[in-house]
Description:
The chain is mostly helical. It has one domain. It contains 21 helices and 2 strands. It has helices at residues 2-5, 17-46, 50-67, 79-92, 97-113, 117-120, 125-142, 144-148, 158-172, 176-199, 207-222, 242-247, 251-283, 293-309, 319-327, 334-349, 351-354, 359-374, 376-383, 387-402, 405-421, and strands at 75-76, 316-317. The chain has a two-stranded antiparallel ribbon with strand order 1-2. The model has no long low-confidence stretch (mean pLDDT 89).
Amino acid sequence: MGSYLGFLPKLQDFAPFKRTLRSNIVAGITVGIVALPLALGFAITTGAGAGAGITTAILAGFVAALFGGSNFQVSGPTGAMTVVLVPIVTKYGVAALAPLGVFAGLLIIVMGIVKLGRFIDRVPFAVMEGFTLGIALVIALQQIPLALGVPKAKGSHTVLVAFDTFNNAVKSSLNWKSIGLVALVLIVKFSWVKISHVLKLKFHLPASIVAIAVATVVSEISHLHLATIGAIPKGFHAPHDFLGALKSVPMGEMVYSIIVIALLGAIESLLSARVADGMAHAQIDHEQVKHQPNRELFGQGLGTVVASIFGGIPATGAIARTSVNVRSGARTRFASMVHALFLLLILLFLGPLVSHIPTAALAGVLLGTSYRIANPTSIREAMRSTWAAALVFVVTALAVLAIDLIWGLVIGLVLHAFLKAAKRI
């Protein structure tokens, strides 16, 4: 029984509370501002709608922060998870996400209880880098319908759907208003650091929020009449027909989808927690406790279960948001909880304002995010490594792009093990 009590929150998780309160609140609000467009964008890309995105960021973000094993992890909808969820929604509809999310979350909890976290935490660097690059490429391809302002082509394979969507857009006539707005978002997003330096701003505004605000104002003033997020329901709503949605998915597909969602949720969350540990040691003077992988799995699984029950989608730890959290001064997990509470306030009081954001603007933000995830510097470093490590990196990325995330990971691990056995890596 004692070992299971280790999964429960403790007062020491928030210590020292008073001394770190201000820095945690500032960090939580900052990461909340960053998380808003990403949560909305990834949920819309999935097909679940903006409301599901902010619901997930609030519920999974709070629960995973409270019960998880990292002091800095920020959880919510992520690009990697959309890669898995898009084909499911295409085949079986949005309603299937609730039961699949609940059972996948329960599986992640079981993985934590039986202590599989330490094994998942040891995925080789070359495999993880290739895995991450593949995810970034898929996220970028998923934005083509929103960026071009056209309906998504039929199908569930990301590359083929992206190609067909682009081909259809060219044949029918490109929506230059939508493309122009995406370009504006990217220009503002990548120029904002220099612009804010020139303006000598005494406070920090996240580039993504500034880019979306500019794009929304331009769209409204210019009467571009582009598709927008639309009304966001206040509050959380449980699915109407949980069992019916579950029965709509064939048994084989259901089991495979649950395993894929659970494995991805576990892997991405532990990778993000690992990154947070490294950043915390570099950013914070006093020694921080390393994340607890099994407790982290427990918290992430519970977060996904709660979010899925109340109209959200499966969540994971988010590397970009977690990095912002650490850089913004987070000292305990309370900062991540503040991020969730801040988003709750936005949901309750600023929903009508958020509803005017053009979906093309979100596509621009996610294209910029995919570029950041791909990280050209990391690609160059990976390619300059040993030829064997570079081969694992490239093959893993291509397998993720051509097949799916889990098969990409499996192929990368098998290739790494083979080359290691042959003493080539």
